[in-house]
Design goal:
By secondary structure, this protein is mainly α. The chain has 9 helices and 2 strands.
């Protein structure tokens, strides 16, 4: 498993780096849209794992359409369209729930899970698209990814070597306080080095706060995904990435970190 993780990373990372650097902002939006669709599929697979009655396909299809619309509306910075898509999605879901309620008493639960999925995945990912299309977009995306990857790696090795005290045993028994501290430390050190060599224009004090906030948000995102995986009784969101699980398993920290990064880069730096 450990070797598989490294082999998958070694193969995938060069393609990801090349795509971000050379692909352009629009191709990046297409890439994020594909990631969003796959992640939504994995999310629905988890949350409807124990459903007595499978949710109507129209609910899932509507999520993919709404999510894709959110990604591309964000690319063009049509934020009023983003809010309208979310509102229209809710209205259509309300009509569907009225139609299906008589034969499916769990339809409202399915609607709630769909809404959560649309906000949790495509809406949160859309902040990456906005950041990429903005000033210093390429460097900003690389910085966010470096922080998330180092935080994940630091937490894994610190937890493996020094982990003694459970962080959230009910949600994720394998995570430890020592691992969490190691992840934050790796995020902070990696961020400081990245700023020094690539983005020296960032105020150091504000940058340190930013790195720590990204680290905390990333760990919260990781725990949040663990929460509904544990509720469903599944270990991984999928198996598309050998040694890593599914796409959602790899971007869980990134999902929570992206809105935080946008706030800092848009309003605080």
């Amino acid at each position: 498993m450990h070797l598989q993780r490294w082999l998958t990373s070694i193969v995938a990372l060069p393609f990801l780096i090349f795509f971000i650097y050379k692909g352009g902002a629009f191709l990046f939006a297409i890439f994020i849209c594909l990631v969003s669709i796959i992640s939504l599929w994995e999310y629905f697979r988890i949350v409807f794992n124990d459903a007595t009655i499978p949710p109507p396909g129209i609910i899932l299809f509507l999520a993919y359409i709404t999510g894709s619309g959110i990604i591309f509306a964000s690319f063009y910075r049509l934020f009023n369209v983003v809010s309208s898509l979310i509102a229209v999605n809710l209205i259509i879901l309300s009509l569907i729930s009225i139609i299906y309620f008589k034969k499916d008493e769990f339809i409202l639960e399915a609607v709630a899970k769909q809404i959560k999925g649309v906000v949790y995945i495509p809406l949160f990912l859309s902040y990456l698209v906005i950041i990429r299309s903005g000033e210093n977009g390429i460097l900003s995306i690389f910085l966010i990814l470096v922080l998330i990857i180092l935080g994940d790696t630091g937490a894994f090795y610190a937890g493996t070597c020094f982990g003694r005290h459970k962080l959230a045993p009910v949600v994720s028994p394998g995570k430890t306080i020592e691992g969490s501290i190691g992840g934050l430390g790796a995020t902070l050190l990696g961020g400081i080095f990245f700023r020094y060599y690539f983005m020296p224009q960032l105020n150091l004090g504000m940058a340190i706060i930013f790195f720590l906030c990204i680290g905390i948000a990333g760990q919260a995102g990781d725990l949040f995904e663990s929460l509904f995986k544990r509720r469903a009784g599944v270990k991984d969101s999928g198996n598309i990435l050998p040694g890593h699980g599914g796409i959602l398993d790899r971007i869980d920290a990134l999902l929570f970190a992206s809105p935080v990064a946008y706030v800092f880069m848009e309003y605080l730096f």
